[in-house]
Design goal:
heterodimer, A: alpha+beta, Alpha-D-Glucose-1,6-Bisphosphate, Chain A, domain 4, 7 strands, disordered N terminus, B: mainly alpha, Arc Repressor Mutant, subunit A, 5 helices, 70% helix
Amino acid sequence: MTAENPGPLIITRRFDFPIERVFDAWLDPARASKFLFATPTGKMVRVDIDARVGGSFHITRRDGEDVEHVGTYLEIDRPRRLVFTFGVPKFSAQVTRVSIDLKPLPGGCELTLIHEGVLPEWLERTREGWGRILDGLAAHLAKEGAA
Amino acid sequence: MKLNERQQYFDLTLTALAHPVRRAILERVMQTELRVTELARPFAMSLNAVSKHIRILERAGLVNRRRVWREHRVSFNAAPLKQVSAWLEKARAFWSARLDALDQLLKAEDAAATQQHAKKGKPQ
């Protein structure tokens, strides 16, 4: 994990399960409804997954209010790579992009999730400068705190 | 601030950060307040062009511009960047929890399969 460069957001996780099972869980409505946008008190009222490139997903959770999660699949390369756009229209008009890369390991696999907080074009132009900007912010805040 | 308004500011911040000249300007004013002419010096561009970049940073609330005599001085304002930073933290916690849930789900499936296997004596 790269704490010093959180834009884009990168999370790596090891699973003690075969790569195919971990991959398939993202596109299988029954499993996705249990882990993807679930909350302990929420109930899934809609889980539509059209698992093909250009297909979209609608996952709506009812937890006091209905919260819809929507996106479109950009890349599906079982079991190694899955890329989709992701938005929660209720909270933001922003469309973000999530990519999931899997690689097999002995006895399991490793998943790397990258959530690009904003449109990919923006990210391309910003990737390089992020670390420095946030380092600068940290230094500035430290100075502010000391003053 | 209302949600929409906050979103708008967030977008402005991201737009403002999406240019190397503006990031360079920001990095310098983070250190200390600077005159517009000082900020413009390292760049091979007109004062006017630099001023335009500063205005975009200003619109996002990333810098403040104040007039001292005939000079414009530019200083850094951390609030919008803190917001971006907070968003990243939130997103990280969100996905971390989702991946935990996935791991638990697969473990529960295996546990259920083992139990069923033991009960019925046949493979899943």
